[in-house]
Amino acid sequence: MMGLYSIRMRGAEGGPHEKGGRHISGAERIVEEQELETVASSLIQRALHHSKGKSDFINIRIDAVSENDITYVDCLAIEEHQTTSLESSHTLAKDILFSVVSHSAVEKAFTELGALPDNMRGAILMDAETGNRLDDHHMRGVRVSHMDAIGNAQESMNTHMREALVLATKVQSCFGIVGELCWSDDPDYTVGYVACNGVYHRIPHMKELGNPIGGRVFFVKANENSKEIVDYLENTTVLVRW
Ligand code: AMP
Q1: For 132-158, what is each residue's pLDDT tens digit?
Q2: What is the distance in A from the centroid of ligand 1 to the CA of 45?
Q3: Which end of the chain has fewer CB atoms within 10 angstroms, the N or the C?
């Protein structure tokens, strides 16, 4: 086997992110050397043709990954839910989260995501008991990185879902994390999810069609070391087995 590489892309409009550019698209893969060029070109396509706009800044970074540094985890089980309105979707998502997160923290998570003035780059880290925010990165949040899947996913799975499942599986594999709430920032994509107890609950109508603001909340058990959690989420290389 040839070596594995982490390849990460971020695109923004109006200049680089760090100079105030608006984030358009970000994606990453972990692939073998001979796949790098094909994957790089598909990542460039994504940065240029996104429903949020056209990137005028694109950064692609490639790093070799040592096999010894990889953690393998099994993919979450998938449960597909059918709902007909935003209200019934939010009620269902809350009911699922109540099994692992306090009522006040769940309510706070929905309020915070609903009130975001713009898209965060990452996720809110929240105490599952008190609802207090544990990360101090404001609009940056905690950015999960260094993950991909190996093996073949279901044929029917779209890119959105594949990437969300990989991210959610890495997040749920982290010590101290008990649940996640997410909806997309893609204005055309209203499906969201809740992950907890080893299950990815896919829920339609989590936001209004056309809404360009999405978000994520990771719920953390009380008294866990949030620095170590952030380090795992941002830096540990995880490969998900389908
Ligand atoms: P997406 O599912 O890509 O549309 O992202 C929805 C929201 O989740 C974004 O607006 C970010 O706030 C957050 N998000 C996206 N990617 C990540 C990531 N890699 N780690 C943490 N949060 C993310």
Answers
A1: 999 976 788 999 999 999 987 777 788
A2: 19
A3: N
